[in-house]
Each structure stands twice: as structure tokens, then as C-alpha cells.
Amino acid sequence: MTEKKNPSTGSGRDPKDDDSTAPKSEDGDTADVTSLEDLISAEGPDVEVADESELTAEEIAFLEAGERDLVADMRNDLARAQAELVNFRKRVERDRAANRDAVIAEVIRTLLPAVDDLYRAEAHGDLAGSPLELVAQKMHAAFARYGLRPVGEKGEAFDPNLHEAVVQLPTPGATGNTVADVIEPGYALGDRLLRAAKVAVAVPDGK
């Protein structure tokens, strides 16, 4: 019997029997695969992945130290943030108090001319027995509550930070500059000078 040849190959062998086109593994052997998954399995993994459970004691200690450092850094950041918040609150309170004192000082400064008139009238006895005497007493009490105090007294040493010398009086026997008379009293609100006292200054006689 004559063997029937395949017209495409010219031989009697079936192309399916030719393993030249069959998938091969990395070592060159023909792999028995029936799907893409089998082909990938035959090729083998491209990268070898280390088992995470196979860590040395040194590596574990390094990771634990890094974790401790991270926690310490977070605690330091939290403590720093809390300190900055406390400082911010203190700064706000300080600025608020300063603004309050500045506003009070400005209000009282505008009232000083009226206060001068009341003091002059009181010094001359014009307020005794009059309704203004009660008004003057209430104003004195209100100003004292805010810390207002007069500046400049006769006989005290002259201080250019508190006194404004209107006139100098050469005085025999004077050893230093002293306040001989208070022409217009000054006022201070706490440590803030609102107005310097206008005074006559007794100075040593140059003779």
C-alpha cells in the first residue's frame, strides 16, 4: 500500500507530531503544557522572593529599633506642639492685657484736664459741701481702682523721667536738684507714665 503524503509538508508525518514548535522550558526540554498557566509554571518564576519569616535576629532588632525611634519622634513632635500651644496662649493673654492697659490709659489721659480742675477746686476748698465733692470722691475711687496714682511731690528728688522742670530756683544750701513746688501734678497708671509732673526745681546756688 502506498503511504499517503501530506500535501503541505511533502512527507507522511503529521505536523502535530513535530515537536519543533512545542513550548520548551528554560532548560530546553519540551514542556507538557495545555494552557498559559502551565507555560508560566514551566518557565519558572523570574524573581526569587525571600520568605519574610526567615529574618535574622539582627534584622529583627533593626526593625524593632526603627519602630522605637518612630514612636519617640512622634512623642517629641507632640510635646513640641503642646509647648508651642502653651506659649501661644501666654502670648495672646499678654498681648490682650497690654491692649487693655493701653485703652484704659488713653481714656484716663483724655480725662486728665477735668481731673486737674477738680483737684484745683478741691485744693482751694471750692468743693466742700457742694455736689461736686461727691463726684470728685467717686472719680478718685474709680481711678485708684485702675491703678492711677499722682506723680510729683514737693521735696522729692528731681527725676527727669517723672518730672518736667518748668523753672529752676537757685537755692542756698541745696546740695542737689529737688522739687521745690508742683505746678501741675503728673499721673502714672501702674508702670506707665501718662503725664510728667510740671515742677519748680530747687538747684544749688552757684555763688
Structure, explained:
The chain has helices at 36-43, 57-123, 131-145; strands spanning 148-151, 163-171, 178-184, 186-189, 192-195, 197-204. By secondary structure, the chain is of the alpha+beta class. It has two domains: 55-146, Alpha-Beta Complex (Hemagglutinin Ectodomain, Chain B), CATH 3.90.20; 149-207, Head domain of nucleotide exchange factor GrpE (Nucleotide Exchange Factor Grpe, Chain A, domain 2). The strands form two sheets. Strands 1-4-5 form a three-stranded antiparallel beta sheet. Strands 2-6-3 form a three-stranded mixed beta sheet, with no helix packed on it. A hairpin with a 2-residue loop joins strand 4 and strand 5 (192-195). It is elongated and about 100 Å long. The N and C termini lie far apart (164 Å). Mean pLDDT is 77; it is low at 1-11.
Q: Helix and strand layout, with pairings?
A:
Elements: H1 36-43, H2 57-123, H3 131-145, E1 148-151, E2 163-171, E3 178-184, E4 186-189, E5 192-195, E6 197-204
Parallel strand pairs: 2-6
Antiparallel strand pairs: 1-4, 3-6, 4-5
Task: Let me know the largest β-sheet.
Answer: 3 strands, antiparallel
Average pLDDT, all residues:
77
Assign a percent range to the helix content.
40-55%
User: Unreliable segments (pLDDT under 50, ≥5 consecutive)?
Assistant: 1-11
Describe the global form: elongated
Order of helices and strands: HHHEEEEEE
Q: What top-tier CATH class of the largest domain fits best? A: Alpha Beta
Taken as a percent bin, the fraction of beta residues is 15-25%
Spatial arrangement of strands, main beta sheet = 1-4-5
- CATH topology name of the largest domain, in short, is Hemagglutinin Ectodomain, Chain B
The structural domain count equals 2
- Computed structural class: alpha+beta
- Which CATH architecture of the largest domain would you pick? Alpha-Beta Complex
